[in-house]
Design goal:
alpha/beta; 3 domains; 17% strand; single chain; Rossmann fold; 4-stranded antiparallel beta sheet
Length: 437
C-alpha cells in the first residue's frame, strides 16, 4: 500500500510542478518542490524498516546473516539507483517522464505484493511494466514547460543528465535562438557579422592580433556559433572543440546556421571535460585556445578560471600562442592570467587575451587580416558590413586592450584583486556576482 501511494505521488509530481513553475510563483514553486521531495523520500524510507522486519529471520537463529543481507541489498539498490537513473537513464528520459515511470513501477510492485505471488502475476506485472515503458512519452517537459514569462517562446528543448537546454525567442526584443543552459544565458545561434548581437568581434580580434594561427582549441562549444565563426580563419588547419554536454550536439544538428561544424573535416568535436582533456592530451600544442566561459560566480567555474588551469593551458600553447577567455567582468581573472602569462589584457565585455608574447592591435594590419576571413566561400565582411557601426568589423577594430590598473580604476572594487586558485575558489564563494565582499 505504501508503494502504491508513493507511486501515485511520483506520477502527480510533474503535473503539480507544471502549474507552479512560473516566474511569479517562484518562491511557492521552491516550497512545493521541497514538500514533494520530503513526501516522496519519506514514503520510500518507510519501506526500509518494513523490509528489515520481514527479512530478519529471528526464529531460525540467523539474525546476523539476515540483517546483513537486508543492508547489503539496500546499499546495492541505492547505488544502482543513482548510477542507472543519474548516470544513464536521464540521458534518454526526461525528469518528468522519469517520475511517471518510477511511479508506475512502484504501483505495479505494490500490486504484485498484494496479489497472490504466482508466476502468472509476476509475468503480468512484467508485461504491464514493459507496455508502460514503451507507451509513456520519454521526453515530456511538464516540469519546465511554463518556466518563462510572457513574451518568451520555447523554440527547442533538450534535457539530459547535465540539465536542461532551452532555445528561446524573446518576442519582446525580437531576438531569436537564444541558448539557455539550466536557465542561464549560454549564447545565441548567430554568426552574422552585420548583426553582432553575440559580440563575435571578441573572437575576430584573434585574427587581427595573431599572424598565422594554424591549430586552435575551443573549450566549451555550446551552440557552436563561435566554432562556426572560427572556421572562417583562412590559415586554420585544425580546430579541436571540447564540450562536456553532448546535448549541445543535438542543438547544433537542428540549426543550419551552425550545423556545418559537424561535417567540417577541420573540426574535431570531443565530448569531455576541458581540463581533463588537456591533461590527457598534454602533448598537443595550439596557437589559440578559446574559452567563452560561463559566469565567474557559478559553481564549478574555478576549474576553468584558476591559476592551476591557466598553467595547464600555458603548457598546451605554442611560444606565440594566445589564450582568450571570458572573464564575465571579474577583474580577479585578469590578475590570475597575469600571474601565469607575461602579458594579459582586458578587452570587450571583459574578454581576456593572455600570452607570453606581447599582444598589439595595429589597425592597418588588423584590417588586412580581417579582410581575409572567408566563410562558405565568401568574404566574411562585405563592403557594406564594414561600414556598420554595430557590425563586428568596426567593433573589432575599436577594441581597447586594457591593463589591470586601468580595469581596477573602472570597477572600484574597494579591495585588492586576488589570484583565483583551486583552493580559494574566490569567484564562487568569497565575492560572487558583484566581485565585492
Amino acid at each position: 500500500m505504501v508503494l502504491i501511494f508513493a507511486g501515485f505521488i511520483d506520477i502527480s509530481t510533474p503535473f503539480i510542478l507544471q502549474n507552479m513553475n512560473r516566474p511569479k510563483y517562484f518562491s511557492q514553486y521552491i516550497g512545493i518542490c521541497c514538500v514533494l521531495i520530503s513526501v516522496v523520500a519519506a514514503l520510500k524510507a518507510i519501506l526500509f524498516p518494513i523490509v528489515h522486519h520481514l527479512g530478519t529471520k529471528i526464529v531460525a537463529g540467523k539474525v546476523g546473516a539476515s540483517v546483513s543481507k537486508v543492508y547489503f541489498f539496500n546499499i546495492v539498490g541505492s547505488t544502482l539507483g543513482s548510477l542507472l537513473i543519474g548516470g544513464i537513464f536521464l540521458d534518454y528520459i526526461s525528469i518528468s517522464s522519469m517520475f511517471i515511470l518510477i511511479g508506475i513501477a512502484c504501483i505495479l510492485l505494490g500490486a504484485l505484493m498484494i496479489m497472490k505471488k504466482s508466476m502468472v502475476s509476476v509475468v503480468s506485472v512484467v508485461m504491464l511494466g514493459s507496455c508502460c515503458f514503451y507507451l509513456v512519452d520519454k521526453h515530456t517537459d511538464y516540469m519546465f514547460r511554463n518556466a518563462f514569462e510572457q513574451g518568451i517562446s520555447i523554440d527547442s528543448y533538450i534535457e539530459n543528465r547535465y540539465g536542461v537546454i532551452h532555445i528561446i525567442n524573446d518576442d519582446r526584443e525580437g531576438r531569436e535562438n537564444i541558448i539557455l543552459g539550466n536557465k542561464m544565458y549560454d549564447g545565441i545561434l548567430n554568426i552574422d557579422p552585420d548583426i553582432d548581437i553575440n559580440d563575435l568581434n571578441r573572437l575576430y580580434l584573434l585574427a587581427a592580433i595573431h599572424p598565422n594561427p594554424k591549430k586552435v582549441l575551443v573549450i566549451g562549444v555550446s551552440g557552436g556559433a563561435w566554432t562556426r565563426a572560427l572556421s572562417s580563419f583562412p590559415t586554420l588547419e585544425t580546430i579541436d572543440a571540447i564540450e562536456i554536454n553532448k546535448g549541445y550536439l543535438n542543438v547544433i544538428k537542428q540549426y543550419p546556421v551552425v550545423s556545418p561544424i559537424l561535417n567540417d573535416p577541420k573540426i574535431n568535436i570531443y565530448i569531455d571535460d576541458g581540463r581533463r582533456w588537456l591533461k590527457r592530451n598534454s602533448n598537443k600544442k595550439y596557437d589559440l585556445i578559446i574559452m567563452n566561459t560561463t559566469y565567474h560566480w557559478r559553481s564549478g567555474v574555478t576549474n576553468l578560471l584558476s591559476q592551476e588551469m591557466m598553467k595547464i593551458i600555458k603548457n598546451s600553447l605554442n611560444p606565440d600562442g594566445i589564450l582568450a577567455f571570458n572573464s564575465t567582468r571579474s577583474p580577479d581573472t585578469l590578475k590570475t592570467a597575469q600571474s601565469v602569462f607575461n602579458h594579459a589584457y582586458w578587452g570587450t565585455l571583459g574578454f581576456i587575451y593572455a600570452s607570453d608574447s606581447m599582444i598589439k592591435l595595429d589597425e592597418v594590419v588588423a584590417k588586412e587580416r580581417l579582410d581575409k576571413l572567408v566563410l562558405d566561400g565568401r568574404p566574411l565582411f562585405s563592403q557594406e558590413s564594414k561600414q556598420l557601426e554595430n557590425g563586428a568589423y568596426k567593433k573589432t577594430l575599436a577594441t581597447k586592450l586594457l591593463s589591470l590598473d586601468e580595469v581596477e580604476k573602472i570597477y572600484h572594487l574597494g579591495r585588492d584583486t586576488e589570484i583565483i586558485t583551486d583552493s580559494n575558489m574566490i569567484t564562487e564563494y568569497k565575492y560572487g556576482l558583484f566581485g565585492k565582499k
